[in-house]
Automatic annotation (TrEMBL):
PROSITE patterns recorded: SAM_MT_TRMB
Name of the gene this protein is made from: trmB
Function of the protein: Catalyzes the formation of N(7)-methylguanine at position 46 (m7G46) in tRNA.
EC nos: 2.1.1.33
Protein name from the UniProt record: tRNA (guanine-N(7)-)-methyltransferase
Claim: Cell division is one of the keywords in the record: no
Length: 228
């Protein structure tokens, strides 16, 4: 069993009160959309989705949902599992999934570690972690999600040759992630030139966190690692 950090990798879960409609959607629709971890995972994760899909993608901490929802809309044959503990962000995603009748999205509103430990080995074709909480104070670095134990979890769940994609605008977290992935035997950085990690991936829709970073004078970096 992979060691678990005793504590959360995320901060507060609630912000402004939800509108009555979103309160209703969270109560009525989130249970239907939630990945049920109470039993073992199905042998084929494709059975989780209403859509006919051919690959599985995980996004840990989808924030405002801009990236998750864009990918789900433009890649209807990909099944997306989106994880986000912040209630306001989850309510926004639930509303979009219901309103747009997206059948290729499943959600989870708690610690991503729970899902990673539940997933079958070699079941993911792609994983994203975009602009995660950087926990900038040194004494809080142990809360950063990227660490040896969680990279073990990603490595177990990803298929060999699959990609793990990470974005951040915080230099110390970029360096932290590069160092941890460099030292991990199951991942290799795919960058061949200096520009490879300075440009977002094809079809990138942007996110509100990226917009905030740009407004505040920070630059996003986009790291791609291959599961070997």
């Amino acid at each position: 069993m992979t060691e678990r950090y005793e504590g959360s990798f995320f901060g507060r879960r609630k912000g402004k009160p939800l509108s009555p409609r979103r309160e209703d959607l969270m109560a009525r629709e989130l249970p239907r959309l939630t990945v049920d971890l109470t039993g073992p995972a199905p042998e084929d994760l494709k059975s989780l989705f209403e859509a006919d899909i051919d690959r599985i993608c995980l996004e840990v901490g989808f924030g405002g949902g801009e990236h998750l929802l864009h990918r789900a809309r433009t890649e209807p044959q990909t099944g997306f599992i989106g994880i986000e503990p912040f209630v306001g962000s989850m309510a926004k995603a639930v509303a979009a999934v219901v309103d747009e009748k997206l059948k290729n999205v499943k959600l989870y509103d708690d610690d991503a570690v729970n899902v990673l430990d539940w997933l079958p080995p070699a079941s993911l074709d792609l994983a994203y972690q975009l602009y995660p909480d950087p926990w900038p104070k040194v004494r809080h670095w142990k809360r950063r999600f990227i660490n040896e134990q969680n990279l073990n979890r990603y490595a177990r769940a990803l298929k060999r040759g699959a990609e793990f994609r990470f974005a951040s605008d915080i230099d110390t977290y970029i360096d932290w992630t590069l160092r941890h992935c460099r030292d991990h035997p199951k991942f290799e950085w795919t960058a061949a030139t200096s520009s490879d990690w300075k440009q977002p991936w094809q079809g990138w829709p942007g996110t509100r966190y990226e917009d905030k970073a740009i407004r505040e004078g920070r630059v996003g970096r986009y790291l791609t690692f291959r599961r070997i």
